[in-house]
Structures are given as C-alpha cells and as structure tokens.
Amino acid sequence: MNTLRIGMAGCGTVGGGVWRHLAPHAELLRQRTGKDIAITKVAVRTPAKAQAVGVPADRITTDWRSLASDPDIDVVVELMGGTKEARELIAASLKAGKHVVTANKALLAECGAELFEAARRAQRQLLFEASVAGGIPIIKSLREGLIANRILSVHGIINGTCNYILTRMTGQGLEYAEALAEAKAGGYAEADESLDVDGHDAAHKAAILASLAYGFWVEPDQLYVEGIRNVERRDIDFARKLGYELKLLAIIKMDERQAVEVRVHPTLIPRTHVLASVSGVFNAISVHGDVVGETLFYGRGAGADATASAVLGDIAEIAAHPEYRKCKAPETACLNAKVKTMDEVVSRYYLRLDIVDRPGVLAKVAAVLGAHAIGISSVIQPEVHANTSVPLILMLHDAQEKQFQAARREIEALDVVKGPAVVLRVEDFA
Ligand SMILES: NC(=O)c1ccc[n+]([C@@H]2O[C@H](COP(=O)([O-])OP(=O)(O)OC[C@H]3O[C@@H](n4cnc5c(N)ncnc54)[C@H](OP(=O)(O)O)[C@@H]3O)[C@@H](O)[C@H]2O)c1
C-alpha cells in the first residue's frame, strides 16, 4: 500500500488549514515523499463545522478514540488542543503502533517526557513542528540542522499576540488596554487573552525549545513566567530614548557549569539587534550554537496556513521516513544539567522609580545600589512641571536577581520613593 492514511482529530483553525492545503499539494507531496497522503477520518465535536471546511460526511466521526483503534489509520494527527483527551489519544495511538503528529504545546510542556517515552517504547515517531512558532521550522532545525552544535542560547519572540500588542504600543503610542482591544478586534487575540498576555503560551513553547536544546524537560515550576499585562507605554518610550525596544522574550541558556535558565518576560533588547525589528504578529527565534554562531529564524507563528505548513511537513517526514529515529533531542537526555532558580539568574535591569522632586534623591538610590554592588550605567530624569513626583529611570549593570530584588525592596522603602518600582530586564545577547 503506497498511501499514508491519516486520522485527524480536530478540524478547527489548524485542522481546517491542513485539510484545505493537502488536496492542492497532494501531487507535490507524492513526488517528494514517494507516497500518497490521504486524510481518511476526521474527528470533531460538531460535524457541520468540518463539513463546512469541505470534509465529506462519511469521513467524519465524533469519536476521537476510534482513530487510535482503527487499523486503517497509519498516522494520528492531534489538533484538538486541551490536555486531557489529547493526552489519551496520543498515548493510545502510539500504543496501537501509529505515528503521531501534534501541534499541542500545552500538552507537550506538561507531559512531554511521558509522551516521548511512550513513542520510544512503541518505536513510533511523535512529531510536533507546529507546536512552536507556527510555520517556522525551528524544531527540525534544532533536531537536525544544528545537531552538531552545543546550544549556547535560544532567544525567541514566540507569541504573536504579545508582539502585536507591544508593536502597537510602540509604534502608535497606544496604552496596553487600547492595543489589546485592537488586537481582539483584528482577530490577533483570543476573547480570553490570558494564556497569551500572561506569558503561559510562550512558556509552553520555551519548555519545548529547552527540551530540544538541552535534552530534558524542565518542570513547569522551574520556568520563570511574566507577561505583558502591566507594561506601560511610558516605559516603552523611556527605553527607546535609551536605545532599546521592548519584547516578550523567551530566554533559554546554559552556562559553562551546565546550569540552564528558562524564562519568559518583557525584555528590553538593544535596537541594533535583529530581534528588535521583529514586529506585529511575526515570530523570530535566534539560536546561538558553538559551531554555527548566531542563526535567526523568522516567520508567521500562528494561523491556519503557517501551522498547516508545519503539520504537513511532519506528515511528509513520516511518509518519507516512517522508521523510528532515535539519537535526536529531545529523546537524548542531557548531561548533568541543572535548572537555575530565578534568584540565580544574572541580568541587567531597567528601573523606573517615582521620586520626590528634591535634591539628593539620586544619591540615596545610588547608595543602596552601591551597597549591593550594583552599578548604574545610565540615568534619565525627564523634567516634569507642576508635579510633586517625577520619574527617575536607571539602567543597571549585571546583577544577580536575588541581589537586585533585595536592593529594589530597600529602594522602595526610601521615604523619597513613591510607590512600587517598575522593573524590566535587559538582554544584551553577550
Ligand atoms: N491556532 C493556531 O494558530 C495554533 C498555532 C500553533 C499551535 N496550535 C495548537 O493546535 C491545536 C488546535 O488549535 P486550533 O486553533 O486549531 O483549535 P480550534 O480552532 O479550537 O479547533 C479545535 C478542533 O478540535 C475539535 N475538538 C476539540 N475537542 C474535541 C473533542 N473532545 N472531540 C472531538 N473534537 C474535538 C474541535 O471540534 P468542534 O469545533 O466541533 O468543537 C475543533 O475542530 C491546539 O493544541 C493549539 O495550541 C494552534
């Protein structure tokens, strides 16, 4: 039989895209893989929606479990989302000897270790290109193209919703709430935006990238996650005066002692760095390998077309190479790596204080920083008239997070400082 038979669970944004793009590319894929690829069964909750995408009624089922048990299916493509049913479907499919393709970053971040172990036991492929950065082939690049490299760092703008909001705040001078409302109206943000703007979607993807870079799964509580909900436009403006752009950045690094850090937070990036110019819903990932140096991957991180490209790429990979392939991250467990706590992370900082407008305040703040051995690299204090408090912005040299937070608490307690400080971390890509 020269046909690869696909059972697809879910026919929404991603599944609908896969269905629509397969037919016009079937001949191309046959020429390139040597196989015909056919979606023979589609599991959904609401058949009418799948029919509206063009799926014939006789290929639709509402029983997703039947995909795993169907002997006429070679590959199960999980595009339902969620973690409960999806986990059960993937585990059952692998056990039944089927290859699996998924776009489910939340599930992999939560149960990646368990599911890849199940794939290893079953000697079946579990591919997941669409789970990070949509159409950008970052997974395959890390697993294959960069396999000879020790990965020194990965920096990613991997949430299009956040990047869109921050781009509009920067370019159009919108406040966060205005930019969010615009993103929702334009279809760039979900009705419930929290998974995106609170950083969790980017954190799921960061966990997957870390597993590929370093060969082990970080536990969800080992990841530091901070979203963009509290970002104020004036901090974007002040940072720009200092030569920086603000991005929600996933940072994954290993130091010379094999300590790994995985964090997602709003981050100031020097305007001269290529990631600073990635705007709108686009994603970009910079990977620094010890052999290759710095590489950059750029493209659409979400949407039906970009994700369909990634899912069809995984299906084609199975069509061309159906054998289980080991010796590839994330199946290769790493070294003796340890995950750093946030307290151990070293960063530069942007600190904005609201201070009483009187002489000697800067000296008091500098004294606290000096006592914690934290150096100041630049200061701006815009002139404000007819006001009793003024902003004071400090750019700080490298400090350990624990040390910095202790200094911050002392500064906030000074009688000349009004209210909590605003803190943004700075990445210099050194
Ligand atoms: N959207 C993107 O741009 C994007 C990008 C990268 C990764 N992903 C990931 O891809 C996956 C799918 O996302 P999506 O945006 O395509 O979601 P979606 O538009 O909500 O589609 C989900 C599909 O799964 C079906 N479904 C859900 N639960 C089901 C169940 N218990 N039984 C049968 N069918 C079920 C839904 O059927 P009904 O419509 O009939 O309810 C629908 O067809 C998620 O894991 C997501 O994180 C999405």
Main sheet makeup: 11 strands, mixed
Helices, by number, come to 14
Strand content: 25-35%
Shape descriptor reads: elongated
Unique ligands: NADP nicotinamide-adenine-dinucleotide phosphate
Low-confidence stretches: none
What is the topological layout?
Layout: E1 3-9, H1 13-33, E2 36-43, H2 47-53, E3 60-61, H3 65-69, E4 75-78, H4 84-95, E5 99-102, H5 105-122, E6 126-127, H6 138-145, E7 151-157, H7 160-172, H8 176-185, H9 194-197, H10 200-214, E8 224-225, H11 233-241, E9 244-254, E10 259-270, E11 282-289, E12 293-300, H12 304-320, E13 338-339, E14 346-356, H13 361-371, E15 376-380, E16 389-400, H14 401-412, E17 422-426
Parallel strand pairs: 1-2, 1-4, 2-3, 4-5, 5-6, 8-10, 10-13, 10-17
Antiparallel strand pairs: 7-9, 7-11, 9-10, 11-12, 14-16, 14-17, 15-16
The structure holds NADP nicotinamide-adenine-dinucleotide phosphate (NAP).
Short descriptors:
430 residues; alpha/beta; six-stranded parallel β-sheet; 14 helices; 26% strand; binds NADP nicotinamide-adenine-dinucleotide phosphate
